[in-house]
Amino acid sequence: MSTPDHADRLARLRAELARRGLDGFVVPISDEHMSEYVGAYAQRMAWLTGFGGSAGTAAVLPAKAAVFVDGRYTVQVRDQVDGALYDYVGVPQSSVAEWLGANVSAGQKIGYDPWLHGIDWARGLAAALTAKGASLIAIDSNPIDAVWDDQPAPSAAPIAVYDTEQAGQSAADKRGVIADWLKAQGLDTTVMTALDSIAWTFNIRGEDVSHTPVGLAFALLHDDATADLFVAPEKITDAVRAHLGNSVRIHDRTAFEPALAALAGKRVAVDPDRAVAAIFTALEGAGAKIARHRDPAVLPKAIKNSAELAGTRAAHVRDGVAVARFLKWMEEVAPQGGLDELGAAEKLRAFRDESGVLKDLSFDTISAAGPNGALPHYKVDETTNRAIETGTLYLVDSGGQYADGTTDITRTIAIGEPSAEMRRRFTQVLKGHIALATARFPKGTRGSQLDILARQYLWADGVDYAHGTGHGVGAYLAVHEGPQRIAKPAGGQAGTEEPLHAGMILSNEPGYYKAGHFGIRIENLVVVEPVRIEGAEEDMLGFETITFAPIARNLIVGAMLSPAEADWLDTYHAEVVEKLSPGMVAADREWLAAACAPIDRGVAALAA
């Protein structure tokens, strides 16, 4: 629950708004790049409200305030945000625009920071407020920054060169491809704001955002294959300057907005999903001709080349050794008692650190015991930390950042003897996981067309899970990467989604969550690959599984698996042993062989 300090922070913000002649303000979890994860300096909503999730918004009026979160954070927001200060509002059932529309009065002025919101969001909210006689005001400086006394400064960590050998393509070649695209579209320049796109395009990496190896920067790329990179000068080393070469002009990050004003008369591509409202306003004010296009780095970044795939495979084997050692340790230690979620997460981090090459975790580890496992996006801290008790399930979703790849894996294990219900649900989740892993589908298929494969066995029992089945993953970049995904169709428009392409990396992570009791998820990463089918009349694709770690055999009801499913599991476990054993000591290898032994296929009573 929020401390009294959050009441003081809210009062100070309201006083600052009144001083500026504003009646309200909208506070997103966002930065100038519309990143999923943001640096400490941009955690304004967390500072104001106490909410620690990765997605959400707050809205403040003189006498009321609200926090807006989706179903992932329904429980967390109530634990962290004081209900006496803020209304809890669920999205998409409602929205900031709906709540403000119901609570503003005619003549009121609601402020927003145009460097933290998208243009379509701003225009939509402006229209909703206008309908109520109120107005939306773009502000020059964020009022939270004025009252946040100990606000961290943006990271000053230096940018690093990402070797062409690991990237598989030079930065100059990537700029050339983008220049060709600009010329084909009749455009002069594209604005690039997404931090992972900039890192990929220029073959650089950074340390400015926790768990995502990117540096704070903006870029303009031109049809002659030159570029302007806007980054704090102290972050550029001589090695980076030499790497970028003369075709990349380096400017202070503060020079970005003036550079937009200099694009008068130019035909400029801007991605409305990744560029903030302030960029559109600056370009419109300058008289540039704006063309809405998706960031040209998004798709080539998602389709990994052979070097990126080779590095990712190596990273997954290394990571699998750490995860397997952790699972062995859990099997030995957890039943003795005295272990909690934080302790388990720390131990898993220690196993990864022992590789000597771990750069960072790829996200905050979800270390969830018992009923906490039923919260798909649970984040353990000192206030929620739960003991790992016998008779419960423990779910751990974690990943590592290595210079050659990004990993993301979930395993669920039983502490002590699992119940029949736990085993039945686990086996249903496993069957869905196998159905997706073994899918064959024609080129052009979207992820939403495959999503039902993972859910079908749960649906047969009238149950489901509320998250997507698969997200894209970067190559030593963001653990959540678009445009590919495997999920129910967004708004029912499957045809608007990006088809799956060979070389894309996705997660395969069906689950089941019984509120207040336990959660189950089995997650491996897969690579889309061409497959040969004799007599096929279509170009066909399938998945190569690249994550390797044991799947809990004592949670599987062997009689519920078809012979083909049991064959897949045994083959997968044999490959786990083959790939991980060389990196393990003898005792660990012995445990791994037992954990990956063939499944008991004997006829047994089905779990109730």
UniProtKB/TrEMBL annotation:
Domain Peptidase M24 C-terminal: 540-599
Keywords: Aminopeptidase, Hydrolase, Metal-binding, Protease
CC terms in the record's Gene Ontology section: cytoplasm
A molecular function GO annotation: metalloaminopeptidase activity
Domain Peptidase M24: 312-529
Keyword field contains Chloroplast: no
Creatinase N-terminal domain ranges (all copies): 9-139
Pfam families: Creatinase_N, Creatinase_N_2, Peptidase_M24, Peptidase_M24_C
Keyword flag Electron transport: no
Sequence intervals crossing the membrane: none
Protein family according to the UniProt entry: Belongs to the peptidase M24B family.
Record PANTHER family: XAA-PRO AMINOPEPTIDASE 1
Protein name: Xaa-Pro aminopeptidase
